[in-house]
Design a protein that fits this description.
It contains five helices and four strands. The chain is α+β, with helices and mostly antiparallel strands. A four-stranded antiparallel β-sheet has the order 1-2-3-4.
Length: 165
């Protein structure tokens, strides 16, 4: 029986908070929560704008929310189209994972452990967004750095850079 009591004592001590370490973790957790909220708010706003415009925004909604690197890759796609009169882009709307999007479908927004924003669409698709944010300027918000296209980790930016040259 003494082993059982010792185990309970050790578990209890292990669960007790330690002064300044708790403060650091709390501050870090708060910063992560703020960043997550900023990222999700950006993606929600992007989807709402695309739904309101029925995908007809010009420039495209994703381009409006993209950071400089993703915009550069998207420009390659436009330049390729202008030169060849054919697209090197993905053959579907990446926001909605569909060629004929249902802009009214329900969506669920969440964060993954990897810090990506996951959009779960009612049709059954999950879209993952990598965002870059300026933590020092909350008004600047976040921008889409990339869209993960498949389970193998292929991304929109990588696809455009490889295909549209």
């Amino acid at each position: 029986m003494p082993t059982y009591k010792s185990l309970i004592f050790l578990l209890t001590i292990g669960l007790m908070p330690v002064g300044s370490a708790t403060a650091d973790v709390t501050k870090s957790d708060q910063k992560q929560a703020i960043m997550a909220a900023m990222k999700i708010a950006t993606i929600k706003k992007m989807y709402q704008q695309d739904a309101d415009d029925q995908g007809l925004s010009n420039p495209a909604v994703l381009r409006q929310y993209a950071n400089a690197d993703l915009q550069a890759a998207m420009k390659l796609e436009q330049d390729y189209f202008d030169k060849n009169q054919t697209s090197c882009n993905i053959d579907y709307d990446v926001l909605w994972d569909s060629q004929d999007p249902d802009y009214t479908q329900d969506k669920k927004f969440s964060m993954t452990e990897q810090g990506l924003v996951q959009v779960s669409l009612a049709q059954g698709s999950d879209i993952y967004y990598e965002l870059s944010c300026d933590a020092n300027d909350k008004r600047a918000g976040c921008q889409v750095a990339d869209v993960i296209l498949d389970d193998d980790g292929k991304t929109l930016r990588k696809h455009l850079l490889e295909t549209c040259r």
